Amino acid sequence: MAPPDRVFRTAVRPEDREAVRRIVRSSGFFYQDEVEIAVELVDEALQRGDASGYHFVFAEIDGIVAGYACFGPIPGTGASFDLYWIALDDDFRGQGLGGAVLRVAEERMHAMGGARIYAETSSRPQYEPTRRFYERRGFCLEARLEAFYYPGDDKLIYVKRLLPRADETARQPASLPGPSAAPVC
């Protein structure tokens, strides 16, 4: 049996609205208002393009949108990006697709001048796999905002430093260490 055809794309299409809705709902993690926010970001990108500040990576397997990431530069910062969403359709979990989507998104952020990625998640027990996902991929827990979402549901903020591009490494002063592949937590 041939491996499935895996394609990554960055162009947002109108049909991605329903794909994102399906993907985010499939996890069972998100409240309905959060599902609608995920779809609103697709709408913003469709209407305003790059000016929206929302950029996407969609993973398709055999023509089906199986997962996606949404990210964007954080206004008022020089090189920081928010990873707003990374989600997989529940039917495609456990196949390494989440890590692949994240790698492609990181490459895009880096190409756009990103040096740090910030990802937020919940402290609820059901998000333990999400927290492990980030930690295994070099993210470090940077902050905990107690009872941010609801009582007993803290906001956890993770950060990952991206490796500098070759042309950036040459410009760094010798006294300052450059970003490394290993997380510095």
Automatic annotation (TrEMBL):
Q: Which CDD domains match?
A: NAT_SF
- List, in alphabetical order, the Gene Ontology terms for molecular function in this entry: N-acetyltransferase activity
Q: Where on the tree of life does the source sit, at the highest rank?
A: Bacteria
Q: Where is the N-acetyltransferase domain?
A: 6-163
* UniProt entry keywords in alphabetical sequence: Transferase
List the coiled-coil residues: none
Keyword Transferase among record annotations: yes
Record-given protein name: Acetyltransferase (Modular protein)
Task: Tell me the organism.
Answer: Uncultured Desulfatiglans sp
